[in-house]
Amino acid sequence: MSGRLLLPLALLTLFALAFAFDAASRERTGHARIYVVSLDGSGRRSLTTNKVENDRPALSRDGRALTFERDWVGLGVISSTGRNERELLRAPHQPQRPTWSRDGAYIAFTSCVYEECSVGVVRRDGTGLTWIPEASYPTWTAGRRLAYLTDLAPGFREGPQSIAIANADGSGQTIIARTSQVSGYKFLPPVASPSGTTVAFVAYDGGFPLYTLDLTAGSSPELLAPNASDPTWAPNGRRLVFSNGRGLWTVRSDGSQPRRLVRGATSPHRPSWSPDGTRIAFVTRPRTKVNLVVMNLRTRTTHVLARNIVPRLPLWSRDARSLYYVAWR
């Protein structure tokens, strides 16, 4: 067998951690709800109260509303204070990972049947649903456009072969990156920068290298780190934070000045930078429980804010004073 097909131990660790985190969700019983808690641990309460699964919330850019996966077959929306919860839409196949447009007017999501995926785009009131076929995992870029995975192929080693950018209705599609440019087998979901002019993404090539791509025509992917998962941007767009099986790291958007923030003893994953740039929230699984942890970047101190949660990306309120997360009832 070719040496290229043998995954190093660190990469196997990434797979094992991802499986363990997802298994933690499946092992629990009861309904998942969306919670909010202040940074000092006070004011913890459930925002959603219906007796169905509520998962993977996304906060609108103005911080006033959350959309989320609802009851496996639809999307819900609720104010960020927990009022006016309602069903946004139902779809023939489970809508996943909703994300708000930058002006808050639209919500995009992924819907898959086996290995055939489409991106749905709907107005914030649930009307005007349109579909972009052969697409998955959208992220909103500048000018109300979307970057997403496309050129889908079946199987673990193939998967998405390209990243495209298009208008919200799927028109004007342009391929901006191909796996052949990075000697990869497939792409993982892209993440747009705060300005929407750059995307970060991980490619699988036997490792999990992290790249950025300027959306200017003619740009090529730039390597930032040899192994990474869960990349998210700093609010000023100058750095990214990611996990790599050995801890949490940050790196400048040009690939310089890598810094380790947290060692990997507690399996830190899903980092999320606060809007004021002073803290990073992430989840850990030191034993059998999944915890929500916050790090102060100035003092490098950490504290556990919530325990026994669903291992999802923590969401910061726009004023950086509280966090939204998912936990079992």
Q: Would you kindly provide a written description of the structure presented here, covering whatever features stand out?
A:
This protein is mainly beta. It is 6% helix and 47% strand. The chain has one helix and 29 strands. The strands form seven sheets. Strands 15, 16, 17, 18 and 19 form a five-stranded antiparallel sheet that branches. It has a four-stranded antiparallel sheet with strand order 2-1-29-28, with no helix packed on it. Strand 16 (191-192) and strand 17 form a beta hairpin. The N and C termini lie far apart (47 Å).
What is this entry, summarized?
The chain is globular and about 50 Å long. The chain is mainly β and 329 residues long. The longest helix is centred in the first third of the chain and has 19 residues.
Number of helices: 1
Mean pLDDT: 88
Largest sheet: 5 strands, antiparallel
Q: How far is it from the N-terminal to the C-terminal residue, by CA?
A: 47 Å
Element pattern in H and E: HEEEEEEEEEEEEEEEEEEEEEEEEEEEEE
Radius of gyration: 19 Å
Using the alpha-carbon principal axes, give the shape.
Answer: globular
Structural class: mainly beta
* Portion in beta strands: over 45%
Number of strands: 29
Helix content: under 10%
Identify low-pLDDT runs.
1-27
